[in-house]
Amino acid sequence: MPATRLRDRPAWQALAGHHAQIERRHLRELFAEDPGRGERLCAEAAGLYLDYSKNRITDETLDLLVRLARESEVEQRRDMMFAGKPINTSEHRSVLHIALRMPKGASLTVDGVDVVAQVHDVLDRMADFAHRIRSGEWKGHTGRPIRNIVNVGIGGSDLGPVMAYEALRHYSARDMTFRFVSNVDSTDLVEATRDLSAEETLFIVSSKTFGTLETLTNAHSARDWVVGQLGSEEAVARHFVAVSTNAERVREFGIDTANMFGFWDWVGGRYSMDSAIGLSTMIAIGPERFADMLAGFHAMDEHFRTAPLSENLPVLMGLLAVWYGNFFGAQSIGVMPYEQYLKRFPAYLQQLTMESNGKRVTVDGVPVGYDTGPVYWGEPGTNGQHSFYQLIHQGTRLIPVDLIGFGKTLNPLGDHHDILSSNVFAQAQALAFGRTEEEVRAEGTPPDVVPHRVMPGNRPTNVLLAEKLTPRILGALVALYEHSVFTQGTIWGIDSFDQWGVELGKQLAVRIIPELTGETEPRLTHDSSTNALIRHYRRLKQT
Ligand code: F6P
Question: Any idea which residues are catalytic in this one (predicted)?
Fold first, then answer.
């Protein structure tokens, strides 16, 4: 932690004063004063072009934000992460997802162990396994090749795999079926398997801890389904593999650890899609394309590690999030991909951003005294425009938005892609510049309707553009947001790598389960609301 608390840092105080001026400025003026702004306030790295000119900032704002990053020791803490120092202080762990995508031959030694060599050992085993599955060499219990992959996991052991599969579906083995089961709601597993034959199905049980109730419940039911269909416990060995850091528990479940792909406690669940947790992704797109994805992650890592702060994409995006959250009081950030394959990207980002930065105390345990992680949310492209964009355009809340577009579609069809892309630019334009009362009047609008049609504008956007969605670009895009989260968390002085807040609910649920399942009326000792709800539930269950 820097010696000075965030609010006392000179740059923070300067930003507070500066905000009072900027708040009154409109993007229309800022663009009018500086005709080259749109070409100037942009940056490019790892195949991603970021236009951040339509933000409520001036050069002075940027200077102050960069000063804030320096005073908050973003560079030092970034270097500590890259050196494997235990920056996840509440769990006493290194934070080394960046090692997952270091190229073969690179080395990073932590506690005397070269973690990059470990990573590549696992990647090689994954590649061998993926080849055997894809080629049909790996046979199920009855001798049939595997054609269906079901990933069973939750949180980071689900959202990354499902997002990456959807994002890279274009590149996937189309003769195979991929399903993802996360919810302990039985419907999830039942629907995911109802049209599959166990003979051709492989379950990948993905759980860092191998102790997550939802995943183990689903995995046990999946095992019953396989054994029920194939008539033998021996089938488990050919139809289940595990991805975990916990060999002991994998063995207890009955999966041969020869069929386990490991990772390490220095990989956070929400930072794990490029570890063995990505096994389903690798089977879907093949090891070579998986390597391309890792190269994209690494390219963005290198940019984050080496580029000056003022040209550093993740730093800029992180600083802008702080600017709106802490100085304008923005509560949320929208992320809208104009690419159907990225439909699960906002859901993926929700865990990455909110489980990381939804914290109320600093790393030294002191209540922060300022807002931390904003709510991230979003939907693909034009669908959102016909639903909630109204609020972003004319509502009373300020919602900064990231719009993600591509030069090429993976499925060319008439002029669909140009129509889609026109919306990226039009939305950013409308949000920034709006429509004045004079303009609305000049269109002959009836006076009583004029106020309803005025578009205030001055609503900030980042526009991210890439040539087309490839494994490499997906890696770069995810790493961009990972490091933006890091930048924000470092400024707020919080531990972005723990998640203690999810524990209490889990413990209470474990206590409540027997009260719901027991035959006899339980003696309830909760608060009166929980007691009444449990009684009512039991009545509903019995009718
Ligand atoms: O409940 C939160 C969490 O611990 C996440 O951080 C994690 O991604 C998820 O549960 C799943 O955990 P595991 O991979 O250990 O099953």
Answer: 355 (proton donor), 386, 506
**Nearest alpha-carbon partner for 256 in 242, 245, 246, 244:** 242
Residue 99 per-residue DSSP state: G
Residue 3 predicted with pLDDT over 90: no
State both tokens at 271: 């930072």
Any bridge partners for residue 45, and if so which?
48
11: three-class secondary structure by DSSP: helix
Q: 126-164 in b/e burial notation, b at 16+ Cβ within 10 A?
A: bbebbeebbeeebebbeeebbbbbbbbbbbbbbbbbbbb
Query: Which pTM was predicted?
Result: 0.98
Strand ranges in 249-364 using DSSP code E only, listed in sequence order: 260-262, 332-337
Question: Which helix (H) or strand (E) is 124 found in, with range?
Answer: helix 115-135
The answer, yes or no, to whether any atom of ligand 1 lies below 6 A from the CB of 161, is no
φ/ψ of residue 337, rounded to 5: -80, 130
Residue 496 has what DSSP assignment?
Answer: T
Is 267 strand, coil or helix? coil
Q: Judge whether 424 and 338 are in contact, CB under 8 Å.
A: yes
CB 152 within 8 A of CB 122: no
Residue with tokens 């933006």: 484
113-114/260-262 β-pairing? unpaired
Asked if residue 211 has pLDDT above 90, the reply is: yes
Among 209, 218, 265, 497, the mutation site with the greatest number of ligand 1 atoms within 8 A of its Cβ is 209
Tell me how far apart the 2 most distant CA atoms of the chain are, in Å.
Answer: 78
Catalytic residue of the set 92, 386, 452, 541: 386
Mean pLDDT (whole number) for 492-498? 98
